[in-house]
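Look over this one:
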Amino acid sequence: MHKKQIVSPFPERRKRGCLACGAEDIKPGRRYCSKQCRQKLIWALSLSKGLLQTLNARYAAFSFTEHFVALDVMPTWSIRISRFVYKRKSGYSPANTLKELILEAGNEWYNKRSRRISRSFASQSILEENIEYSINPDSIKPNTNMIPKLSADQKKGLKHLNIHLNTLIFGDYVREIKKAYRRMAKVYHPDKGGDGDMFKEINRAHELMLQWIEDPKFRSNNGLPGCWSYNGYTNRWSPPLWQ
């Protein structure tokens, strides 16, 4: 295993591309270059759960660059991060390389067990051998992000009102929506020399957002920017936050 080949806590963020392989030639609005590519990485991440449970992982993060993949693990008994790094062979996808990393780490664990040491000591030994002190422990703890749940028309309405999505998360969205409507109405009102058709769109957008205000809905998104995140409490992987 190639330890400490990636210096920063996470590889430098790439341009928006496939979340499973990094390919940038994907269709607009897509998160993956193909269904098969996504399924391949999901399978490899599922395979990693056995290793993460053996290592008593509280949290973990998986990231990759053009040349390496990295699996960062925070065990339940420590705040230190252990980094497992594996070099990508020519033509190997992140999923294939992650599978090799998992198999090698598993073999190391079984080799330690063959020396008649306990399961917990074997796990602790592997983790301590791969501690990366430069990584901030908070950097792999997934945050719960509340994202407004909007219909396609309501999303279009936000654009017409020139409202940023974060306004609905952090601000007084009732006041902000009404303020945005008044501001845009002044610009497009026909009596002020504005575009009558656009003014109708502004009114429609205002109505749609008032409907949302009556029963605002949000969805949670557990994730990290730039890497896949694992929560040991739920035994689940979450895709990177797509920025």
Summary: The helical segments are 35-54, 94-113, 119-129, 152-161, 167-170, 173-188, 196-214. Residues 150-216 form a domain with the Helix Hairpins fold (CATH 1.10.287.110). The first strand starts at residue 57 and ends at 64.
